[in-house]
Task: inverse folding
């Protein structure tokens, strides 16, 4: 089959279509005059592009006569057009990816996993080795809040719907009536976007930012993860690679929204607690939707002895279990909602750990496979299991980030209260001896009177209350405790002790962030000193994470100098951890 040489023609068609619909909306809402003005400027821009430049005097001549209100509308029109063009471009990337799957030998199409596997095969890499490499793979994507992200959630939702309509319009079997209906819906969405204020009028709170992250999961990632896993599974099977475990999901999601104190001073212990509860509320709601779908699908009566022992004689044993799961998810959702709103928590048995929900779904999975209904198990149920292995019942893992001097100040208040002097004035040796002695001690370091003392002021109290939130929420919804401006070994040990003081039973992993030029240069020595401490090495024997900073080092040494310092730091860290036999994970703080 021949391959269309002009692979970007569909993109131009989509941009033209969206532009025509936007033009129709402008005519209808703002009149012919604004439409003609926008078209004149657009045509001038098109001509200038073909000529290579645009004379500023010509552009000024078009814009100077316009009043402020008209200029604003013109700017909005071009902003909307660029948004629509971006939607078309993103959709075209997906189109090119599908084209590659259809024409894998075409060098001009997107090179996906199939091409990678083909190249590995050509180089003689055995399928067994590929499988062994993939099995322990773990990719953690971190959602962060960016003040420069001004697109409102409501507009993102409309843009997603527009992209779906473009996909529908690509269908080869679409008839004229369907085409007209889809264009009509497209115009409605463009009109809705045009009539929506693009700019937030109030600064988003940390909770608002976290809700934005939840919306990304709900609207995109919740569907994307199982779909991507199915694509990967199919490609591996086509390449002759044995199937990976059914629960294999190498993707995890973390977030800094609601946990990053260093990036936003408005993030408090109260905010962190609310974000963690809201995440569990959203997770319960999303799984509830999954279970409702499973209730509709799993109507069969053939079941394993294991399942029937649980349900008793039943013509719909799968639905018996799923109804129980649905009830518990509803209780979970109500409990989280009550906790967020400060209302009495309703009674009932909800899900408190991901394992509880996983066991219920695995029971159904085992039964279906035992009675020859594996194809059904590989449907919606498998998607739900993969979501659970990816998102857990907490939706994502919240990272905490705090600046190292705040920890020092908290410990300084504690040592002064105990009559030991000022921790902040001690040298590194004194600090380490104190921290290690207290980490190994079984007695409490402070009593309730400390929290009522003047030394436990606002900033100190905030650090300690954050650790108390970590203790009360449990480990499932929490990821890394990142220490900004980490410089010494004591900075890491300090966070370990603060978690111990708060009664954290399963401490968050402590991740030093080395970001200035000097700190990057000393990173290897700092971590080597920590690994020389038996107690610390035992704590991290399964792996240590270290974060490499970019912004501060670039300020210190410029882009090139910072890149070189980061490279040297990574080499030193890798060598240090290899010598100690401890796995190392590097977290790059580039953002994006």
Result:
């Amino acid at each position: 089959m021949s391959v269309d040489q002009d692979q970007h023609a569909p993109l131009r068609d989509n941009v033209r279509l969206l532009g025509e619909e936007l033009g129709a909306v402008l005519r209808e809402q703002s009149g012919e005059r604004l439409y003609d003005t926008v078209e004149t400027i657009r045509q001038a821009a098109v001509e200038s592009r073909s000529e290579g430049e645009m004379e500023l005097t010509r552009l000024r001549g078009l814009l100077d006569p316009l009043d402020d209100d008209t200029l604003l509308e013109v700017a909005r029109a071009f902003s909307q057009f660029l948004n629509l063009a971006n939607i078309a471009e993103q959709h075209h990337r997906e189109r090119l990816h599908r084209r590659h799957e259809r024409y894998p030998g075409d060098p001009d199409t997107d090179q996906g996993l199939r091409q990678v596997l083909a190249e590995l095969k050509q180089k003689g890499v055995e399928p067994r080795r590929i499988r062994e490499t993939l099995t322990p793979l773990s990719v953690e994507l971190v959602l962060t809040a960016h003040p420069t992200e001004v697109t409102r959630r409501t507009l993102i939702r409309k843009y997603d719907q527009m992209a779906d309509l473009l996909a529908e319009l690509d269908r080869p079997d679409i008839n004229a009536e369907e085409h007209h209906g889809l264009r009509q819906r497209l115009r409605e969405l463009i009109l809705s976007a045009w009539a929506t204020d693009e700019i937030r009028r109030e600064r988003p709170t940390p909770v608002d930012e976290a809700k934005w992250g939840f919306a990304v999961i709900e609207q995109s990632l919740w569907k994307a993860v199982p779909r991507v896993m199915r694509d990967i599974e199919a490609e591996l099977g086509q390449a002759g690679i044995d199937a990976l475990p059914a629960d294999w999901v190498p993707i995890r999601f973390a977030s800094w929204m609601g946990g990053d104190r260093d990036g936003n001073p408005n993030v408090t212990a109260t905010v962190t607690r609310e974000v963690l509860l809201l995440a569990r509320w959203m997770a319960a709601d999303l799984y509830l939707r999954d279970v409702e779908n499973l209730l509709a699908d799993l109507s069969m009566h053939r079941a394993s002895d294991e399942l029937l022992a649980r349900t008793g004689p039943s013509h719909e044993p799968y639905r018996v279990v799923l109804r129980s799961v649905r009830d518990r998810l509803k209780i979970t959702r109500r409990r989280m909602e009550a906790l967020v709103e400060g209302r009495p928590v309703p009674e009932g048995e909800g899900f408190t750990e991901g394992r509880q929900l996983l066991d219920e779904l695995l029971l159904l999975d085992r039964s279906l496979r035992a009675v020859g209904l594996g194809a059904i198990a590989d449907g919606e149920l498998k998607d739900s299991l993969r979501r659970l292995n990816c998102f857990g019942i907490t939706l994502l893992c919240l990272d905490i980030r705090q600046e190292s001097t705040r920890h020092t100040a908290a410990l300084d208040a504690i040592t002064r209260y105990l009559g030991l002097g000022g921790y902040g004035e001690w040298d590194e040796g004194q600090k380490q001896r104190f921290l290690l002695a207290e980490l190994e001690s079984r007695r409490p370091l402070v009593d309730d009177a400390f929290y009522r003392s003047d030394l436990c002021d606002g900033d100190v109290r905030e650090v300690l209350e954050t650790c108390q939130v970590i203790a009360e929420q449990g480990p499932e919804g929490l990821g890394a405790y990142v220490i900004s401006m980490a410089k010494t070994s004591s900075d890491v040990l300090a966070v370990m002790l603060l978690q111990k003081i708060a009664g954290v039973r399963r401490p968050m992993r402590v991740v030093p962030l080395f970001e200035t030029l000097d700190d990057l240069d000393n990173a290897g020595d700092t971590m080597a000193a920590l690994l020389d401490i038996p107690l610390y090495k035992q704590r991290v024997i399964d792996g240590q994470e270290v974060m490499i900073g970019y912004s501060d080092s670039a300020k210190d040494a410029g882009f090139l100098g910072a890149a070189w310092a980061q490279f040297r730091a990574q080499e030193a860290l890798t060598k240090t951890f290899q010598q100690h036999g401890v796995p190392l994970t590097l977290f790059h703080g580039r953002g994006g």
User: Anything to note?
Assistant: Residues 9-51 form the longest helix (43 residues). The longest strand covers residues 397-403. The radius of gyration is 28 Å.
